[in-house]
Fold:
Amino acid sequence: DGGITQSPKYLFRKEGQNVTLSCEQNLNHDAMYWYRQDPGQGLRLIYYSQIVNDFQKGDIAEGYSVSREKKESFPLTVTSAQKNPTAFYLCASSIGGRNPLGYTFGSGTRLTVV
Amino acid sequence: DQQVKQNSPSLSVQEGRISILNCDYTNSMFDYFLWYKKYPAEGPTFLISISSIKDKNEDGRFTVFLNKSAKHLSLHIVPSQPGDSAVYFCAASGPYYNNNDMRFGAGTRLTVKP
Structure:
């Protein structure tokens, strides 16, 4: 079955630590995205990548970093510079171009800073 | 700057009745609109979309209406079923649907009571 896998589902981090969220897709999609969801707010774009070895900052990239070394993988690192990292993180992918079906999302990772 | 707004955080309807979820947008350059449905602990899944050249799109029990002059769209679910209970996100993109410019609303939690 094709889809996007995010791991882990739940993640706890101590203040001052970096942590990496995994996102893997087997849909052969070119584009991948990371969103953050906070209560009462829409999904906000952190980073996106339209092709391997290239990625762009979204609206709230500060305190985050990504890599896109393989088409299938787009890991997100939440660094200690991120002031308020506790949130629900969603990874998505798309075939690229004008896709009437929008994005395919993973199940999300809930990150909690303790 | 929230370009897509869903002003009702929650909605409760009786099974068999109509559910109407609303969404407003501010960017007149948006030309494509989507609705996603999200169950707890899962990622959003595509539900229905509409292009700005249309004012209505129907798919089974789901109909999306677009009022460009009012910058407003709505999702109608008729008849509502308990399995429709979920969070519904409105999303918009444009011009010339691009991968990286999709904007999401905060979501409306729909509860359908048996």
About this structure: Chain B touches chain A at residues 2, 4, 6, 9, 32, 34, 36, 41-46, 49, 89, 91, 96-97, 99-100, 102-107 (CB under 8 Å). Chain B has a mean pLDDT of 91.
